[in-house]
Design goal:
Strand order of the largest sheet: 1-2-3-7-8-11
Strand content: 35-45%
Structural class: mainly beta
Distance between the termini: 46 Å
Number of strands: 14
Order of helices and strands: EEEEEHEEEEEEEEEH
Radius of gyration: 15 Å
Length: 171
């Protein structure tokens, strides 16, 4: 059965991305838990999802927070009790690609609730100030979406905590 990449922005500021196939959708995404917050990184191949997720995991660990990988590259999403749940296909569980360096293993969890979606963006004049109020649909559950440059100039976890404090518990 064929798969096709789906990636578009709706007029309401919603980002829709994923692989549509015979068995439903598997997101081309990376999912992590930092502290008590589940974060899903979405975007095309090479967008910086894994690098940004790894930077967030490293920052969380340096703060003494819980930090765990749910999935890298392929993330299964489902809704249970009105919440978006991310999990990982067994063959790649616990592995994260550090582009240009190889595959690393990281502390992992089997699944986690997603609270925030991040879309890495290349630095440009057009992406300097992303639209506010963007959302990401997860099988009928609407999640906040934050676009962020992946230029490495700012610690992504610190930026996310400043931009979306409502998504993070006081640790």
């Amino acid at each position: 059965m064929g798969r096709r990449q789906v990636h578009h922005r709706t007029s309401g500021g919603t980002l829709v991305t994923g692989l549509q196939g015979a068995r439903g959708a598997t997101e081309h995404a990376t999912a992590i838990i930092v502290g008590e917050t589940g974060i899903l990184f979405v975007g095309s191949s090479g967008a910086g999802k894994s690098a940004m997720a790894f930077a967030c995991l490293s920052s969380a660990r340096s703060l003494g927070w819980n930090a765990a990988l749910i999935a890298d590259d392929r993330t299964c999403l489902e809704v249970r009790a009105g919440r978006c749940i991310a999990s990982c296909p067994e063959p790649i569980r616990g592995m994260i690609e550090l582009r240009g360096s190889g595959i690393a293993t990281y502390r992992r969890v089997r699944r986690g609730v997603v609270h925030l979606v991040v879309a890495p963006a290349a630095a440009s004049a057009d992406s300097r100030l992303p639209e506010s109020g963007e959302t990401f649909p997860c099988r009928g559950v609407v999640l906040p979406l934050q676009r962020m440059w992946h230029d490495g100039a700012v610690d992504p976890l610190s930026a996310l905590r400043a931009l979306r404090p409502d998504c993070f518990s006081v640790m």
